[in-house]
Design a protein that fits this description.
Helices cover about 70% and strands about 0% of the residues. By secondary structure, it is mainly α. The protein has a domain of about 60 residues.
Length: about 100
């Protein structure tokens, strides 16, 4: 029987874990309704955060590569690093979308 109480509990647990992870990374929308309404200070803050996140993403990439090269990598830690890297990539894409103006064709 798929979709029963057990699968709902598993889904809820996954949603809670994602919420905790996204909250830890501050993945909630920043509150800018449109790029045109952004002030220069807002844009500078976003660019600074973008630079920091890109550096962290590169650092994680290097750490993941180093772990792959080790004779006995810690698979759980490797999985956590990869998950963090994916969350960072999503946050970077979100910020880049906020900075880049929409082009209406």
């Amino acid at each position: 029987m798929s979709g029963g109480p057990r699968s709902l509990a598993i889904t809820a647990r996954k949603d809670d874990n994602f919420h905790r992870a996204s909250t830890a990374l501050n993945l909630t929308p920043i509150g800018f309704s449109a790029t045109a309404n952004m002030t220069n200070e807002d844009e500078r803050e976003l660019e600074a955060e973008l630079t920091r996140l890109q550096q962290e993403h590169r650092d994680l990439d290097a750490a993941i590569d180093a772990m792959h090269q080790s004779p006995a990598p810690d698979l759980l830690r490797l999985q956590r690093l990869k998950k963090r890297k994916l969350l960072l990539r999503d946050r970077i894409a979100f910020i880049e979308d906020q900075i880049t103006p929409d082009i209406i064709a």
